[in-house]
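ok so for the tutorial part 2 we go from a plain amino acid sequence to predicted structure tokens. step 1 is just haveing the sequence, like this:
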Amino acid sequence: MGTANGEQPAAGASSDKLRHVESMSQLPSGAGKISGINAVVLGESLAAEENDLIFPSPEFSANALVSSPNQYREMYERSINDPAGFWSEIAETFFWKEKWNPSEVCSENLDVTKGPVEISWFKGGKTNICYNAVDRNIESGNGDKIAMYWEGNETGQDGKLTYSELLEKVCQLANYLKSVGVGKGDAVIIYLPMLLELPIAMLACARIGAVHSVVFAGFSADSLAQRIVDCKPKLVITCNAVKRGVKPIFLKDIVDAALVESEKNGVSVGLCLTYENQSAMKRDDTKWKAERDVWWQDVVTKFPTKCDVEWVDAEDPLFLLYTSGSTGKPKGVLHTSGGYMLYTATTFKYAFDYKPTDIYWCTADCGWITGHSYVTYGPLLNGATVLVFEGTPNYPDSGRCWDIVDKYNVTIFYTAPTLVRSLMRDGTEYVTRYSRKSLRVLGSVGEPINPSAWRWFYNIVGDSRCPISDTWWQTETGGFMITPLPGAWHQKPGSATFPFFGVQPVIVDEKGQEIEGECSGYLCIKKSWPGAFRTLYGDHERYETTYFKPFAGYYFTGDGCSRDKDGYHWLTGRVDDVINVSGHRIGTAEVESALVSHPQCAEAAVVGVEHEVKGQGIYAFVTLVDGVPYSEELRKSLIITVRNQIGAFAAPDKIHWAPGLPKTRSGKIMRRILRKIAARQLDELGDISTLADPGVVDQLIALSDC
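step 2 — the prediction. this is what the tokens look like for a chain of 706 residues:
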């Protein structure tokens, strides 16, 4: 088994480990110092298509936590050459009931040919993430600081909790959970919308050592039942209903059906704690099973507002989060307590250049990893003020986000490219009617952001003065892996730029050989990092087969990546989203970016289809800017755009007009559905209940031959 306990590398080893950031030594420190390249500085002018580089302003860099490429290189080099020392220093800033063994900070084996895959960080150390996220902030004098603002579905619905008030709410629920037999290691399913009760429930579980499994409150009863059967929870926490825009969703009915289904499969859950969400549904209208169902408001509020902490080992499980593919049972990604705590806190701090005065808003739902790491744990571990939003970004109109930004003076805004493109489509007037002067850092998450959307986000939303943290990471990684650090170096629209501290990305070819310099290939990670997931719950074999067997000795991300001559990383999408056209491997993200650069294209999604001559053909679903009619002339113009930007080999074989794309409520495009529509496999569409608008599927089918 290999270890990474901070041994100093042999001569020459440092440069070997740092090959992918060595080109940073050539980076300029200001605009205008590179001949032949168009560049702009934050706050000075708009970023146009011909601008290759966006420089931070001297004022921003001067106040940034990481203010230059050289500072980053020094910190990064330390994190790679002395990981034990680097992460131990960060760990010392948190509270540990018992110290870890300094000689065993990290133990790992990522090579399946040498034995079982194993990763551990700070094993033997005893801590608690809830204590560090809440109590520690109160003890440092910030009890009266706002921990969370809440903005409801309807304008005018809002709330807030200070850190002291948050602790009281967490303790009451934790005491209730203990009273019904929930203890260390027990699983709790949480099926809630974005009420404050959702992060409260996560923190309450963590406080007593229980393992929470948040299920996005949009999954179907069958999907929820699958997760219940897999983790066998002591109870399910839900609410009676929620409104998303004008549409009510009856969550308790979904839970009821899931519990019936799970019982058929041998797993009976005897308790369903239900929060009465009065703005969506009255309790008298809620279907009820008296021997199983309990109202949150009737029991939790009666419990004491103080609750002892359960101190857990750094390697004890913190949460399960299920990811679902197009086939097979969901994968229960398991994250542990200590390393995840350090990693989410540190990535949040540096990737957003966090300051104690910031008001931070991430639009993600806690049903996804982004909501775990960057709505709940990462921000609170830094003592931040977080905004939790129950509603949808286009209700009552497409200006809702910017109305909220102005209302709370949001300084850091973190969202998905899909939302950015959707708001682009609706027009700039919804943005510019609001001030947005409080914003200072923007962020992007979920998929590669195409350069035209990046520039719109930068120019329109950020008034050309806010750097964009275009983050690449995964449910499995726990936190950011490749990301800009605002103020540290210049940005290239659409690039995730450089690796975070402790992360060693490599690009390999199909034989698993590392490729140097400017290249494209499969993105893998060499060596572990504290936030890495430890297993797939109950299926370590699948964990090894999926992530470590494709390229022995590496964590295989499943993503394709290009690295340019300056060392910048460009994510090209899932490798299963790579289309092989007559021997040309074409990333779907690359074709989508070319399509969206067309002035009349608002959004695009590309999939591969069987082609009798080329092996695979390129099938593009295209959403046009509002008011633009479908036409054969426009179809040809879109194809020409791709030919001009990428090459004739990448020209779409089919342009399928799309009034909208099938997306989850978090904005993720469900590409498996698009593949089935493209292949005319309409009887294999599968579960579409998680879509924000299931009706879009019928619209796409109706337009198949247009």
